[in-house]
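Sequence only, no structure available. Ideas?
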Amino acid sequence: MIPRRITDISFAWLFRAVSFTGAFALGAIVVFIFIQGLQPFFFPTSQNLRLVVERVDWVRVNGTVYENQHEFINLPWDTRTVAVEFVNRGEMRTIIFNLAPQQNYRTTLLLPIDTGEGGTLSFPDASTTSAIFPGNLPGLDQRIHIILPEPPYNIFRFVSGRAWLPTDDKIYGILPMILGTILACIGALLLGVPIAILCALFMSEFLPAKIAGLLRSCIELLAGIPSVVYGFFGLMVIVPFIRNIFGIPSGSSLLAAVIVLAIMILPTVIAISEKCLKAVPRSRREASLALGASKMQTALYVVLPHARSGVIAAVILGFSRAVGETMAVILVAGNSPHMISSPLQSVRTLTATIALEMGYAAGRHSSMLFSVGMVLLVMVFVLNGIVLILRRRAGEENE
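Reply:
I predicted one. C-alpha cells follow.
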C-alpha cells in the first residue's frame, strides 16, 4: 500500500503541473496572436525588392544571371534601377524599372516603363507590377513581376478605416466589421437575454419538478447542437422570412444574424440562470411569501436579485458565444464589409472575415487577419472585464 501522504503529495503536484500547462498554453496562444497581430504595424512585408519570373529559363538581373529560377529573386530595398534581360521568342529583351527608395523600406516605382514591342504592363495590386510578353504558344506568356515591400500599416487607419480591399488596393479598414460584431452581439443579448431569464424563472419557480427536469434536459440538448445547424436553420427559415416580410432583395442581414445569435445563446443563458435561481435559499422565498408577496413578486423582486451574480455570469457566457460565433453568422449575415445604416442591410463580423479569407490570404493580407483576431481578443477582454466588474458590484450589494 502506498502511504496516503505520498498519494496526496503526488496528486497535488500532478494538479499543479496540469494547471500550469493549461495556463501556459493559453498564455502562449494569446502572446502568439498579439505578436503576429502587431507585426504589420511595425515592420514592412519584406526588407528586399522581390522579382518573380514565369516561363523564363534564363534571366539577367542587374548583371547577375539566374537560370530556371522558381523562387524570389531578392534585391536590396534601396536599389534605384532594376535592369532585367531575358530571351523572348529568340530575341534578347531588356526592361528597366526605375525606383525611388525612401525611409523605412518605402520604395516607389517610377513611371513610365518601356517594355518594348509586344510587351504590356499590368498592376495586379498596389505593390506589384507585371511585364507581360507573348510566348511561343498562345496562353504561355512570359511574365516578369516586381514586388515592392509594403511599409508598416497605420494602426489608426486599420481600426478606423471603412474600406476592406486586401487583394487590390491593399486597404485594410475594419471599422464596419467592428461595428457589425458589436451590433450583432448587443442585438442578440437584447433579444435573447430577457427571454432566457424569464424562461429560467418559469422553470425554477412555477413549473412542477418533473416537467422542469424534462424541459431542462431538452435545453441542455439544444446547447450541444453544432452552430452550423443553427446557421442552416437561419438560412432556410429566417432569411426567407425577413426577405418576404420586408420586401427586400436578400434577407441575409444584420437582423437575421441577431435572431440566429439570440436563439443560439438561449440554451446557455437559460441553463446557467436556472441553476443559479434554484440555488437561492428556500428561506428567502418563505420570508417573502410570509410578508404577503405573491409568487410572481417573490420571483421577480426576491429570487432574481439574489441570484443576480450567477445570472450575469450566464450572460457573460452567452455573450462570449455570440462574439466568437462564425459559421452561423457567415450563413445568414450576407458578409458585406461595408458600413450599414439599417438592420436590414448585409453585415460582416470579425470572425467571419477571418474564416472567409484565411484560406487564400498571403503576405500582408494574412498578417492583417491575425490583427483582426487581436482586435477581437481585445474586445472580448474589455467587454468581459466590464461585465465582471458589474458582477462583482452586484455580489457586494447582495452581501
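Residues 49-150 form one domain.
Hope that gets you unstuck.
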